[in-house]
Structures are given as C-alpha cells and as structure tokens.
Specification:
about 20% helix, Thrombin, subunit H, 6-stranded antiparallel beta barrel
Length: about 250
C-alpha cells in the first residue's frame, strides 16, 4: 500500500528534477544561457532527449486515459452500535438475581438500527459513452451492497451490476449517463516483455486517479487469488507488471 504512494511520488520528483533542473545543468555544461525551455527538445543534447521524450509520452498517455478511469465505492447497511444500560444478570434464575437486585445495570452496547456506510472500493474504466464500465468481479462481488461510480471530474452516479464473469474476475456495471469519455482497448497478444506499463486507479479506495509506472514483467501468468467473502479463484493468461498496484 505504501509502495503505491512512494512510486507515484518518486516519479513526480524525478520528472520535476529533469524538467526544472535540465536548463541549469546544460548551461553549466555548454557554458551558455541560450537554451530552449525544457518543454521543447529542439536544442537539447541527444543524450537527454530520450528521457524527456519518455516523460512526455507517459504524461500524454495519462492525460488521454485518465478521464475514462473511474473510482467505484462499495456501500452497505451496517449495524449502528450505541452505548446503553444493560443488566448482565437478567438471564439468571430469580434466586440468583436477588444478590444483585432487579435494577442492577452496567454500560454495554446494543444495536440501534442500521446505516448505509462505505465499506470498500476499487477501480474501473468506461468502455462505452452511454455508461458501461468495466471493473473486476471482486470489486462488485457483494450482491447485497450498493455501488457508486465517481468520474475523474467529480461527478458521481449510482451503478447497477449487469454481469459478473465467474472465471476472469471481470464485471460490467451500468451508470445512467451519456457522452462519457472512453478508453481505447488494446491487444494484449501484442505485448512484449519490458514495455512500459502505466497503472491508473483508485488507490486504497481513497486516492482517485493515482498513477504508477513500471514495465511488463511477465506473460502469460496463472495466479490463484482469494479473499474474505469472495472465495478463491484461478486467473489464467494474466499480465504481470511491477507498476505499483494496491491489492
């Protein structure tokens, strides 16, 4: 969980150093102050161009995909527990209760109804402009819970689960909206080891549109995964990456 924050902050710091510090470094090397801004690669030495071009590619990819990445929150009615007076000896036979008195009470806990409370969350992305969202099955596994989709611009929508894939850990939810930004789906069969991987998601079910960067580490992988309340399942042909992703 901490790794996701560290990875994101580490990328930000390195990017800022390259962008803001390059001019000063190059001025010292070249002995001149007549250099272009770091937003352009026109007069930048070829040694530094690949790093800045890589940075620009990552930034552009995040800008393109982020509007279609959503946060999904999971809410459920949970008991409201309050402090209340109770007689711990009320179930004892009358001949024993006389030692404590019928009005003997202590402060205990009792349930006073239920309330709707957020209990978890996950990530997803819009796959059609009329409100279809693809996510993981384990994010929306609880059939008794309610789900809310938050767009990157802050808008939120009630979501209805249309389908849960019992094998691939995928699910489709629907929100009532139109004209939404969508992602462009790629072909995982064309992936190669070492390619850059950018993860965008709802870190810790709290920090929306968090970005981390890594590489494609393995193809294809078989993973057995499970968790409390969702059982255990085996996922085949998974893409392994070292981009930090919250469990």
């Amino acid at each position: 969980m901490v790794l996701l924050v560290v990875a994101a902050l580490g990328l930000f710091v390195s990017v800022q150093f390259v962008s803001s510090g390059f001019d000063r470094v190059w001025q010292r090397i070249a002995g001149t102050s007549n250099v272009t801004s770091s937003n352009s690669t026109g007069n930048i030495p070829s040694l530094y161009k690949p790093a800045l071009e890589y940075e620009r590619t990552v930034v552009d990819a995040v800008k393109k995909a982020s509007p279609a990445v959503v946060a999904i929150t999971v809410s459920k009615n949970v008991p409201v527990i309050e402090n209340c007076p109770v007689n711990p000896f009320g179930d004892l036979p009358p001949e024993f209760q006389q030692f404590f008195g019928p009005d003997y009470q202590i402060q205990g806990q009792c349930q006073n109804g239920t309330k709707l409370q957020e209990i978890g969350g996950g990530s997803g992305f819009v796959i059609s402009s009329d409100g279809l969202v693809l996510t993981n099955k384990h994010v929306v596994a609880d059939e008794k819970a309610s789900y809310t989709v938050f767009m990157s611009d802050g808008k939120k929508y009630d979501a209805k689960v249309l389908a849960r894939d019992p094998v691939q850990d995928l699910a489709v939810v629907k929100i009532e909206a139109s004209g939404l930004p969508t992602v462009e789906l790629g072909d995982s069969n064309s992936l190669e080891l070492g390619q850059t991987a950018i993860a965008i998601g709802n870190a810790l079910a709290e920090y929306r549109n968090t970005v981390s960067v890594g590489v494609i580490s393995g193809l294809p992988r078989t993973v057995t995964a499970g968790g409390e309340g969702i059982g255990e399942e085996t996922i085949r042909n998974a893409v392994q990456t070292d981009a930090a992703i919250n469990p």
